[in-house]
Design a protein that fits this description.
By secondary structure, the chain is an alpha/beta fold. It contains 13 helices and 11 strands. The radius of gyration is 19 Å and the shape is globular.
Length: 338
C-alpha cells in the first residue's frame, strides 16, 4: 500500500490507470495548446451546489468506513513544514510514517499483514537527507517542497537548482510552486515554460505542481492553471501550499479533478491530484475520497494518483479507528503525530 516510484515516462510504459475502460499511461509533456486553455468555462454556482452535496450525499459506515480510513492513511503525505522544524521532529515523523497506527488498533482490526504505511513524507530541502536515512528500507518516498516554497518568487535559476539539490539528496518527489502572476496576467506560455523547466530538473522524481488556488481568485483561473500544468508534464496537480488564507476546498477540488478527467479523455494520460491545507478530520478525508471515486473512479484511490497533504488528520483517523474497535473515543493527545 505504499507508493511506488516510476522511472522516466516513456510511451512504452504500462498503463497507470483506466478511465471509462480506456487504459491510461503516465503523463508526459505535450505542446502547449492555447485553445484548450482559452475555451475553459466554469459555472461557479453549479460547482458550488455540487460540492455542497458531497458531505451529505456520500457516506460509509462501520467496517466500510474503517476500510476507507485505512486507504486514506495509505494516500497521506505526512508533512512537516514549520519554521521550527528540526532533525529530531523529522525523525519522529518518519517513525510515524512507518507505523501510522498504534499496535493495539492494528491488532484489533486484524490488518497486521497489510504493513500499512503512509504515501510519502514531505519536508523542506534541509531535511531531505534526514528523512531518506530515517525511512531507509521502508519504500516510503521522500517528497521535498521546492522552488522557493511557499511564495515561489525567487529567481528561476535558483528554483531550478533547488530541485536538483533535493533530487541529488534523495528526494523521490518534488512539490513545486508556480508563479501565480503568470495566471493573473494570462501569460500561459511563461507558466508552461516554467513548469516544464521544473519537470526537466526533477529527472526521475515525480513532480507535483502546487497552484496556490487560494491566491488564484476564480475557479476559471484554477482550471486554466491546471490545464497548463498538466500539458507541461506534471505528474500531480496540488491545490495549495497550506500557507494561503484559503487552502483545499471541495469546489476547487471538483474543478481540478474534472480538468484531470477531461485531460485524460483528450490525451490518454493520467495525472494525480493532491488536496493540501485545511483537511484535518476523518470526515473530510472521506469527503475527498468520495469526490475522487465519483469523478475519476477507483484508480484515483491509489497513492500513485491521489495524496492528501496533511498530518493532523492522522490523529483524528486514529481516534475514529480506536472508536471502531472499542466503542469509545480516546483523547487526541493519546494519538501524537510526531
Amino acid at each position: 500500500m505504499t507508493a511506488k516510484q516510476d522511472a522516466l515516462v516513456s510511451p512504452a510504459m504500462p498503463p497507470l490507470a483506466t478511465l471509462y475502460g480506456r487504459a491510461l499511461t503516465p503523463n508526459q509533456r505535450i505542446p502547449l495548446n492555447l485553445d484548450w486553455v482559452e475555451e475553459v468555462r466554469i459555472n461557479t454556482s453549479a460547482v458550488e451546489r455540487r460540492a455542497a452535496t458531497i458531505p451529505s450525499r456520500r457516506s460509509v459506515k462501520k467496517d466500510w468506513q474503517a476500510a476507507w480510513l485505512l486507504r486514506a492513511i495509505a494516500c497521506m503525505d505526512l508533512t512537516t513544514l514549520s519554521g521550527d522544524d528540526s532533525a529530531d521532529r523529522v525523525k519522529r515523523l518518519c517513525a510515524k510514517a512507518r507505523r501510522p497506527l498504534q499496535d493495539h488498533i492494528v491488532k484489533a482490526l486484524g490488518i497486521e499483514e497489510l504493513h500499512l504505511q503512509v504515501g510519502a513524507v514531505c519536508v523542506y530541502h534541509a531535511f531531505v537527507e534526514t528523512a531518506v536515512k530515517a525511512l531507509e528500507g521502508s519504500g516510503i518516498p521522500v517528497a521535498a517542497v521546492s522552488t522557493g516554497f511557499p511564495a515561489g518568487l525567487s529567481p528561476l535559476e535558483t528554483r531550478v537548482e533547488e530541485i536538483r539539490r533535493s533530487v541529488a539528496a534523495g528526494a523521490n518527489e518534488i512539490d513545486i510552486v508556480i508563479t501565480r502572476a503568470h495566471v493573473f496576467d494570462g501569460e500561459w506560455n511563461a507558466l508552461y515554460d516554467e513548469i516544464a523547466a521544473f519537470k526537466e530538473a526533477c529527472g526521475p522524481a515525480h513532480m507535483k505542481s502546487i497552484l496556490g488556488t487560494g491566491d488564484l481568485l476564480t475557479l476559471r483561473n484554477v482550471a486554466r492553471a491546471s490545464w497548463v500544468a498538466m500539458m507541461a508534464g506534471s505528474d500531480f496537480i496540488k491545490t495549495s501550499t497550506g500557507k494561503e488564507a484559503t487552502n483545499a476546498t471541495l469546489p476547487v477540488s471538483l474543478v481540478m479533478v474534472r480538468a484531470i478527467r477531461d485531460y485524460a479523455e483528450r490525451t490518454g494520460m493520467a495525472v494525480g491530484f493532491k488536496p493540501a491545507g485545511g483537511i484535518k478530520t476523518a470526515k473530510q478525508a472521506l469527503d475527498w475520497m468520495a469526490t475522487m471515486k465519483d469523478e475519476l473512479g477507483r484508480p484515483w484511490l491509489e497513492p500513485t494518483l491521489f495524496r492528501y497533504g496533511a498530518s493532523s488528520m492522522l490523529a483524528d483517523i486514529e481516534r475514529q479507528l480506536h472508536h471502531h474497535t472499542t466503542g469509545r473515543y480516546s483523547a487526541t493527545h493519546r494519538h501524537p503525530i510526531a
